[in-house]
Amino acid sequence: MVRLMHENQAETHEPSGLLIIDKPRGPTSHDVVAKIRRTLRTRSVGHAGTLAPMATGVLVVMVGQCTKLSRFLTLEDKVYRTTVLLGQGTDTLDAEGVATDSAPVPTSLIEVLARIELGHIDVPADSVLADALGVERARTSQVPPMHSAIKQDGVVSYVRARRGEQVELPTRDVRVLRLDVVGASVDPPTLQLELHVTKGYYVRSLARDLGEALGLPAHLVALRRIRSGSFGLEGAVALGADAATMQHAMLSVEQAARECLASATLTSPGVLRAIRGQTLGEEDFDQAPGEAVSGWFAPGGRLVAVGDRSKGRPTVLRAFLHVDEMC
Asked: E-assigned strands of the chain?
């Protein structure tokens, strides 16, 4: 029978798990990682899904062994609440940028905003706003903002944009799973939206594209991520929390994997084969994995590996245990 070392028997006593941080406005995602490194006194910290300095809300932070889940966590859908200011554009498509152009908001659109502000959230079907929202709901591809962290020819695009270079980024496949109007104001003319979108979707691009559909410049003045995959604000802690609070709120690697991935259970011999990187068969699982990427767990509940199927056979993508962690 395979016996795995308990976590407190492992050589390292460094923290390991997943934190949900309620990011405040101001710091970059890298700043958040640096702060948590100092608080928890560990270098092994990363994040899944960048938030711009202006944005607040859910930032998924991985610590220790949980950093191995990074590539799987970044595939998750996101839910945002945002406020779009109509009639004024900026170079970054948000309130952090420099104003570029402006235009008066038509009276017909002001009337729709006033109606929403009074609590009538349903947008008139014959309005230009309904048409613009319909275009966005049907979106299947999107051009990212020039001021983004996407690299082109080895250079981050926002660096090139700040130099005054013309940046043309390729479109990305995206989907808008839900887009709802949740509020509005007339002075200033704003629209508040809640949206559920797939990986790679830029909410700043929403402001640009919605504005274009309305015939107006526009930019974001507020953005809050309220959910990233399975992780929402209900489990979040403040960035300024102390180490004890963060460790108490931290999900274990196993909890994080079960939240974001399908699960499969290995047999004891299967645990050995997975750790050694050997070929596995159906007989190595008590509960066999499906076609999707899944977490593979030992009979006692430890996360052994993340895997999928290659040519029909279970294949390890990322190991979480090693032979020297067995006794």
From this structure: 17-23, 45-48, 56-63, 78-86, 88-90, 99-102, 141-142, 151-152, 155-156, 172-173, 176-185, 190-197, 218-228, 231-232, 237-238, 262-266, 285-287, 294-297, 303-310, 313-319
